[in-house]
């Protein structure tokens, strides 16, 4: 009997052990079935991998296969559905414009363009529902060059973008009647040259672009970004109520020289004096144009009238050759409220020409720049330092 009890106990333990194993095996089998059955309806390893690949393919398609062969018709900014519009429920667009003429014939311009675009892409960061719209005012030859180069230059962009080419002849035809009278005061030639009108694009852009385009940043080609271009657009949020343009001061004594006669007649004037208390004038390498505010500003639009331009030019004995920059500088001497001063770091000009041409004693007063540098501006063909 004792032996039987022992044997019976051993058999019970074996039976319990086998039952436990069977339960474990059944649970594991049910888990596998549940994984494949329910996972096929929701999300499993395969579907997740597929989704990642689809996302990457979509992203690459956006970057590499974007339609860069846009040739807009006269008077139309919308090169594709929604381009230029800020409609509710649509992606938010940030508009940036560059003059892009004669680039196909100039190796120097091509190199500057590549530097500007590569640095913009390197530092550019936007949110998922935001699009950077790149506008290029171009002749046909330069547009063809841009269409070939931009896919490569934008290849590594981490943000969505669109490209719009504006025909320079079409814009010039629209600009000329508006700016013809001011050209003799601010152009290199002795008269109002039709082709020079395009150098006043920023002055009257609010009158020739569609009303849907409310804000735009205009940039020179000889720039190198060291910060996110999106941060530049945030400067619009700091505009005072009357300001229509954001622009950095000129960092050389250019206008100390240009206003020499007025300064001689008015020795107590701040015109042409260095910062922080003087009025050194502006540099148009980086400009924030609030087109909506420009359209609404009675003061600004009155300043575009030929009689007002002539009166101010006579008052200040002003003759310039830098186009829009000269115009903004001249009206800024009397209407500082129209301008939001960008810090020098957003347009860190590197040219030192005037230091060696008669103004070495005061040059540093204009050239000095405190704070971080966001954009280097290699004006007058000055080499831009490496990062």
UniProtKB/TrEMBL annotation:
Is the keyword Glycoprotein assigned to this protein?
A: no
Keyword annotations for this protein, in alphabetical order, are: Membrane, Transmembrane, Transmembrane helix
Compositional bias (Basic and acidic residues) at which positions?
51-66
**What stretches pass through the bilayer?**
20-39
MF terms in GO: xylosyl alpha-1,3-xylosyltransferase activity
Task: Specify the domain of life of the species encoding this protein.
Answer: Eukaryota
Q: Which GO terms describe its biological process?
A: protein O-linked glycosylation via N-acetyl-galactosamine
Q: Does the keyword Transmembrane helix apply?
A: yes
Q: Name one GO cellular component term.
A: endoplasmic reticulum membrane
Region named Disordered: 49-69
Query: PANTHER family, from UniProt?
Result: XYLOSIDE XYLOSYLTRANSFERASE 1
The name on file for this protein is Xyloside xylosyltransferase 1
Q: Which gene encodes it?
A: xxylt1
């Amino acid at each position: 009997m004792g032996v039987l009890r022992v044997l019976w106990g051993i058999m019970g333990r074996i039976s319990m052990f086998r039952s436990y194993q069977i339960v474990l095996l059944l649970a594991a089998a049910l888990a596998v079935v549940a994984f494949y059955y329910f996972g096929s309806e929701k999300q499993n390893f395969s579907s997740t991998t597929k989704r990642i690949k689809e996302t990457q393919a979509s992203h690459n398609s956006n970057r590499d296969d974007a339609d860069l062969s846009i040739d807009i018709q006269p008077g139309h900014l919308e090169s594709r559905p929604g381009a230029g519009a800020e409609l509710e429920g649509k992606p938010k667009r940030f508009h940036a414009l560059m003059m892009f003429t004669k680039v196909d014939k100039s190796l120097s311009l091509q190199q500057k363009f590549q530097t500007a675009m590569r640095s913009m892409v390197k530092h550019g960061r936007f949110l998922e529902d935001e699009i950077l719209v790149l506008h290029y005012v171009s002749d046909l030859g330069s547009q063809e060059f841009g269409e070939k180069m931009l896919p490569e230059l934008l290849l590594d962009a981490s943000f969505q973008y669109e490209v719009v080419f504006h025909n320079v002849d079409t814009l010039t035809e629209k600009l000329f009647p508006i700016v013809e009278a001011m050209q003799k005061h601010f152009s290199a030639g002795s008269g109002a040259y039709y082709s020079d009108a395009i150098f006043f694009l920023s002055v009257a852009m609010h009158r020739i672009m569609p009303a849907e385009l409310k804000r735009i940043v205009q940039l020179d080609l000889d720039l190198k970004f060291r910060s996110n271009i999106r941060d530049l657009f945030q400067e619009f949020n700091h505009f005072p109520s009357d300001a229509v343009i954001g622009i950095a001061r000129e960092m050389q004594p250019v206008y100390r020289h240009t206003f020499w006669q007025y300064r001689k007649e008015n020795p107590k004037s701040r015109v042409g004096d260095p910062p922080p208390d003087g009025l050194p004038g502006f540099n148009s390498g980086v400009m924030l144009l609030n087109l909506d505010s420009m359209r609404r500003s009675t003061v600004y639009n009155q300043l575009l009238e030929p009689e007002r331009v002539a009166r101010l030019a006579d008052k200040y004995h002003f003759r310039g050759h830098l186009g829009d920059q000269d115009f903004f500088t001249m009206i800024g001497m009397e209407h500082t409220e129209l301008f939001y001063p960008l810090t020098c770091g957003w347009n860190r000009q590197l040219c030192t020409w005037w230091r060696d041409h008669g103004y070495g004693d005061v040059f540093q007063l204009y050239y000095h720049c405190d704070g971080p540098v966001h954009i280097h501006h290699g004006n007058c063909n000055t080499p831009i330092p490496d990062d």
